Amino acid sequence: MYGKDDFELRHAPHDLDRDFPASGAGRPETTPAISVSNLNKTYDSGFQALRDIDLEVHRGEIFALLGPNGAGKTTLISIICGLVNATSGRVLVEGHDNFSAYREARSRVALVPQELTTESFETVWATVSFSRGLFGKPPNPDHIEKVLRDLSLWDKRNNKIMTLSGGMKRRLLIAKALSHEPRVLFLDEPTAGVDVDLRHGMWEVVRHLRETGVTVILTTHYIEEAEEMADRVGVINKGSLVVVEEKNELMRKLGGKRLTLQLSEPLERIPEGLDGRNLDLAADGYELTYTYDSNGEGTDIAALLTELGEAGIHFTDLHTEQSSLEDIFVSLVRERQ
């Protein structure tokens, strides 16, 4: 499923036949879906993949975990899902320790991997039903039918997996993950390799899952995906969480605005009197960009335009734009390189 450089299979420190508390016993609904405390992971090679991770994911939210390749996203998810051992720290899934109460914690989570690895000669119905049985759940045809209908797979229930399109196989992976009725669903690059129309369809599926009470945690390289769906965003880089914030608040705090002026004549350089105005001049001299925080001080655009006019700088057009989540992500990562 994953490269062995990133994962080490969780060996058997857990006795899966132990008796654990009944599902949800004594745990209030305010308990976070996921609680990670002081989590560290160092591999035998000495590489430290995670550094002092503290994170809480609220029940019923869509949480997007962003980061460049090798940042630690997959390792973090793998530890939470019980596939990799942490070096130190603690993980709770709806209040259940995923080490000492592995059976209870693991039954509450499901992971949809990025790779489309499925049993090609199995039927859709058979493979989803089998996945449910792996968690010791009794047969429940009604639940399997509901999952397949919700994911628009019902008409394909008797088809062999090898006959499905890439988008259908992606939905099938989600169906397999939902077969045992998890409360927390991890989606690792859920729309990788999927065309634009199917990607938007997948977004609707994820929103529907959230509406049914499932907590969704996704990693994605499509920043617009996180911007479209996530309630909160976490950015991880070099094994450390750079920021965790509500998406709208993050964009308010860090999402500066840009005023771009198309000049009537090219400039060789920004005049000395304007060098403190946070202006950038394009290489060809015809475009001047002013970056500012619309909620901060010193953003009097009218005064800036007056100063430009007094400096003999005239423009033929102007437009403004808000920084996107992608701009913020790139900025945060660059700051910590």
UniProtKB/TrEMBL annotation:
UniProt cross-references to CDD domains, sorted A to Z: ABC_DR_subfamily_A
A Pfam short name: ABC_tran
Superkingdom to which the source organism belongs: Bacteria
Annotated protein name in UniProt: ABC transporter ATP-binding protein
Span list, region Disordered: 13-33
InterPro entries: AAA+_ATPase, ABC_transporter-like_ATP-bd, ABC_transporter-like_CS, ABC_transporter_ATP-binding, P-loop_NTPase
Family annotation (SUPFAM superfamilies): P-loop containing nucleoside triphosphate hydrolases
Keyword Kinase: no
PANTHER family: ABC TRANSPORTER ATP-BINDING PROTEIN
ABC transporter domain mapped to chain residues: 34-263
GO molecular function terms noted in the UniProt entry: ATP binding
Keyword terms, alphabetized: ATP-binding, Nucleotide-binding, Transport
